[in-house]
Structures are given as C-alpha cells and as structure tokens.
UniProtKB/TrEMBL annotation:
<dbReference type="InterPro" id="IPR012788">
    <property type="entry name" value="Decarb_PcaC"/>
</dbReference>
<dbReference type="InterPro" id="IPR003779">
    <property type="entry name" value="CMD-like"/>
</dbReference>
<dbReference type="InterPro" id="IPR052512">
    <property type="entry name" value="4CMD/NDH-1_regulator"/>
</dbReference>
<keyword id="KW-0456">Lyase</keyword>
<dbReference type="InterPro" id="IPR029032">
    <property type="entry name" value="AhpD-like"/>
</dbReference>
<dbReference type="Pfam" id="PF02627">
    <property type="entry name" value="CMD"/>
</dbReference>
<protein>
    <submittedName>
        <fullName>4-carboxymuconolactone decarboxylase</fullName>
        <ecNumber>4.1.1.44</ecNumber>
    </submittedName>
</protein>
<feature type="domain" description="Carboxymuconolactone decarboxylase-like">
    <location>
        <begin position="35"/>
        <end position="118"/>
    </location>
</feature>
<dbReference type="GO" id="GO:0047575">
    <property type="term" value="F:4-carboxymuconolactone decarboxylase activity"/>
</dbReference>
Length: 126
C-alpha cells in the first residue's frame, strides 16, 4: 500500500507543482531528508491531495488560506504558482485572502496578498 500511495503522491504532486519542481526536490534528496520527502509524497500528496472529495482547485484554495494564516510565506508562493495547474484563478486567491483577513487577521492577509500579487504579477496573470 505504501508504494501505491507513494506513486499516487508523486503523480498528484507533479500535477499540482509541476515536473520541474518535483524533479528538483527528488534530485536534491539526501539520506538526511529522504524520509521527510517520503512523508510529504505519501502523506500530503498521496493521502490528502489525492482524495476524491475535493477538486485540486478546492484543495489549492484551502491550502493557500492555511499557509497565509500560518505565515508560511515560501510555501504560499509555491502554491500560488501552482494555481496555474490546479485551476484556481487569481480571483480565487484574492477571495481566499479575504477569508484569511477575517479569520486569521489583517496582518497575515496583508503580507500574503503582497506575496500572491508579486507571484501572479511575475507570471503576467494580474
């Protein structure tokens, strides 16, 4: 079952983050972080992101809101870039940040909006 979850996780991770990102992560993997990479691939991508209940777009929106609320800025930027693959629109990102402002605080949303705006701007999507 673990190998299946790993394969599924890598497939979903590639679909969301892109082959280049996953290839870089896999190439940089060492004995030190191998178990961590396996955990991410099996747990986050193979167990949660692969579930049928929500679309990749819906998972993307929730993930960005959580990352913004928790102040995980590098991961937020990565997931804003991933919206190219998940179907979440710039409008979806903006709406998610409004929820962050109300439920997690304006300072968290303010910084997250700056990050999202920069990423989407660099990509010519806003």
């Amino acid at each position: 079952m673990s190998a299946s979850r790993l394969e599924t996780g890598l497939k979903v991770r590639r679909a969301v983050l892109g082959d280049a990102h996953v290839d870089r992560a896999e190439a940089a993997k060492t004995p030190f972080d191998g178990a961590f990479q396996q955990l991410i691939n099996e747990g986050a991508w193979g167990s949660v992101w692969a579930r049928p209940n929500w679309t990749l777009r819906e998972r993307s929106i929730v993930t960005m809101a959580l990352l913004a609320a928790l102040g995980h800025h590098d991961e937020l930027a990565m997931h804003v870039r991933a919206t190219r693959n998940t179907g979440a629109t710039p409008e979806d990102v903006s709406e998610a940040m409004l929820h962050v402002a109300v439920y997690a605080g304006v300072p968290a949303a303010n910084h997250a909006v700056k990050i999202a705006k920069a990423v989407l701007g660099e990509e010519g999507r806003i």
